[in-house]
Amino acid sequence: MKLLMSQLAATNMVYKKFSFDYFLDSMDQAGGSTDWNYMGAAIISICMTDDPNMDCQYAKKNCQRWGFSVVYSDARGKYIYAINIAGTGSTISEIKLLSSIRNLLRQQWNWSAHRCCFALEDLTGTGRCRKVISMEEILMEKLTRHAEKYGITLMYENLNERESPLATTRFDQFRVVKDIDSPNLKCCVDTVPVAYTGETLEQYFEVLGDKLAHIHLNDGRPFGHMKWGDGFQNLDEHLNAMRKYNYKGTITMEMANGAYRLDPEPHYRANIETLRKHFDGGELV
After folding, report:
1. DSSP class of 125
2. CA-to-CA separations, 285 to 72, 171, 212, 282, in angstroms, rounded
3. Is 11 within 8 Å of 251 (Cβ atoms)?
4. How far apart, in whole angstroms, are the C-alpha atoms of residue 26 and residue 116?
5. Rounded to whole angstroms, how far apart are CA atoms 36 and 217?
6. Rama region for 139: left / alpha / beta (φ>0; ψ in -120 to 50; rest)
7. What are the Cα distances from residue 101, in Å, to 123, 145, 166, 240?
8. pLDDT tens sequence across 208-259
């Protein structure tokens, strides 16, 4: 299995202080092509940019104008109520949460049917809690059933223990998707928490199988979501795991390190060139 540059996508997380149009132009310059497939982990999330014009329809229109495709959306900060799904599960909290989810899913359906995903823990206040609690209490199944109605796939992402205790290992993720058992609930695996826990991406493939449907490919020390070469992870180890398991999905450069925010473009350009040397060919198409 070959890994191609066409599988790469980018986020605008590190472009928080720039307009959305600036981000699109910057990605065009960094990638050298207006035909990128762009990951939008925060691409339509108003909280991730200071652009006063930013909303779902504005982003959609401008992406189309540039010829960019959105393959993922992160609702971080966009939800109406910051409900903690790892809370005690009161009726009021549940009503607020489901109201927020319904509004989000309707909006994302209009944005890009069947291809928008949410990082569940970002969407619902990261699921912080002091102990392991039942699936019923964290309302994951209800979120998934709403997603099924709209034909949207939810991505349950692993996080490090500083962010959430609910999905810090491959087994945590597997338990959730196995219990809910829906084609609309899959997993996004971020290499930063993978490395932090001492696991490997290959182990995630072994456990999650075809439920592993999205990858955030980031370097770190162990934290940081850095460009490759700024951390100490083994890039080829990650890539070889993808080759071994015939991974054909999107590979996101989710750079979010604060050190890049003053001038993000050179960091993205450098990251692309590093990855180009380790991938098996192809172009950013």
Report:
1. G
2. 17, 34, 23, 8
3. no
4. 23
5. 17
6. left
7. 9, 11, 20, 37
8. 999 999 899 999 998 889 999 999 999 999 999 999 999 998 898 988 899 9
Spatial separation of the C-alpha atoms in residues 220 and 262, rounded to whole Å: 19
CA distance 195 to 219: 9
DSSP state of 227: P
The answer to whether 258 and 230 have CB atoms below 8 angstroms apart is no
Q: Where are any strands of DSSP class E within 96-255?
A: 154-157, 185-190, 212-216, 251-253
Most confident of 100-104, 178-182, 186-190, 240-244: 240-244
Residue 147, burial from CB neighbour count under 10 angstroms (0-12, 13-18, 19+): buried
pLDDT at residue 273 tops 90: yes
| Lookup: tokens for 195 | 């490395």
Give the start-end residues of each E strand in the chain: 8-10, 37-40, 69-73, 154-157, 185-190, 212-216, 251-253
